[in-house]
Amino acid sequence: MCCVQLGLAASVGLSDALGPEGVSWLRLAWAAVFLLAFTRPWRSPLSRSGLVTCILLGLATAGMTLMFMAAAVRIPLGTASALEFLGPLAVAVVRSRGAGRWWALVAAAGVAALTEPWNGGGSDPIGVLLALGAAACWAAYILLTQRAGDEVNGLQALAVSLPVAAAATTVLVGPAVVGRLDWQLLLVGAGLALLMPVIPFSLELLALRRLKASVFGTLMSLEPAIAVAIGFVVLGQAPGLTALAGVALVMAAGVGVTLQSGREGRPGPDVRDDGASRTEAPAAR
Predict the structure, then answer these.
(1) What is the dihedral of CA 34, 35, 40, 44, to 10 degrees?
(2) Which tens digits make up the pLDDT trace of 92-128?
(3) Helix (H/G/I), strand (E/B), else coil: 285
(4) What's this model's pTM, rounded to 2 decimal places?
(5) Tens-place pLDDT, residues 190-206
(6) What is the torsional sign of CA 117, 269, 267, 217?
(7) I need a labelling partner for 59 at 20 to 30 A (CA). Which of 49, 53, 95, 245 fits?
(8) What is the largest CA-CA distance in the chain?
(9) Exposed, middle or buried by CB within 10 Å (0-12, 13-18, 19+), for 174?
(10) Rounded to whole angstroms, how far apart are CA atoms 263 and 273?
C-alpha cells in the first residue's frame, strides 16, 4: 500500500510535464512491457470467453487509472483514495447480509464529510466525480477479476488485461503525449510502473499466501489513511478535521463489512473466495 501511494504521489508530480492522462498511459505501458517480458502469456492460449473477460478487465483498468489520476490532481490524495475505495466497498456491501449492509450508511457519512456538500468550496466537484467514476471502474474490475479467476490463471489474466489497458490509453491519449517524452521521463515512467503495479502485486501474492481473506481485506481498508499520510508528507496536503473524519468513516465501513463478510463466509471488498487478490490498487490505479 505504501508503494501504491508513493507511486501515486510521484505521478501527481510528474503530471505537470505529461498531464494526468499522460502519466497514466506511461505507467500502464511500462507495466505491460514488464509483464509481457516476464510472463509471456501467449504460451498458454486463452479460451474465447477468457479472452473477452480479459479485454473487458483491461478496459476497466484503463478507465480506473485515467479517472483516478485525473481526480488526484484536483483533490487531495487521501480524499481521492477514500472515494475510490467506495468501489470495492459497494461490492462487499451488496454481497453481504443483514448487518453488513448497515455499513453503507457509515460509508455515506464518510463521503459527506469528504465532499462537504454544505460548503460550496469544500471539494472540486469534477475531482469528486472522477474519483467516483474510478470507484465504479474498480467495482467492475473486482467482478471481472472474479470471472477471470474461473477461466484464466490469475497472473495470465493480468498479463493480458494490462496490455489491453495500455493499448486503450494509447489510442486515447498516446498521440498527444508521445511528442513530450524524453529519456528522463521514460526512465521515471519505468520506475513508477515498478512502484505500481509490479512490486505491490508481487507483495500481495506473497501476503495472500500467509493471511486469511478477512485479515487481508481489513488491512487493505487502511489504504485511505496511508494515502492521507503520504499526501501530507510528500505533497504537503494537510487534511482538515472534517476530511480526516470522512477518511476514518470510510475505513471503518471497510473494516466492518470485511469482518461481517468473514463471519458470513463471504469475500470482503478486496479478495476473492479462493484467496486471490482482486485489488486494483496495485494493478490499476
Answers:
(1) 180
(2) 888 776 666 788 889 989 999 998 777 765 578 999 9
(3) coil
(4) 0.87
(5) 999 999 878 887 787 77
(6) negative
(7) 95
(8) 56
(9) middle
(10) 13
265 Cβ contact list (under 8 Å, min separation 6): none
Question: Would you tell me the crossing angle of helices 2-39 and 183-193 to the nearest 10 degrees?
Answer: 100
> In this structure, which amino acid lies at residue 46?
L
206-251 tens-digit pLDDT: 787 788 877 888 888 899 999 999 999 999 999 999 999 999 999 9
Report the run of H or E that residue 41 belongs to, with start and end.
none
Q: At what angle do helices 86-95 and 103-115 cross, to 10 degrees?
A: 160
Residue corresponding to grid cell 503520504: 230
Residue type, 79: T
Q: Which domain holds residue 204?
A: 2-284
R_g of the chain, CA atoms, integer Å: 18
Total domains in the fold of the chain: 1
Query: Which residue pairs from 47-52 have beta carbons closer than 8 angstroms and sit at least 24 positions apart in sequence?
Result: 47/151, 49/151, 50/148, 50/151, 50/152, 50/157, 51/160
Rounded Cα distance between 208 and 228, Å, is 25
Per the listing, cell 496490455 goes with 163
**Rounded Cα gap, residues 41 and 261, in angstroms:** 34
**CA gap 164, 70 in Å, rounded:** 20
